[in-house]
Amino acid sequence: MSDYVSTGMFWFSLAVITAGLAEQKRRSRLAWFFVSLLLGPIATLCVVMSAPPAPVPDALPPARA
Question: Which residues cross the membrane (predicted)?
Answer without folding.
Answer: 6-23, 30-51
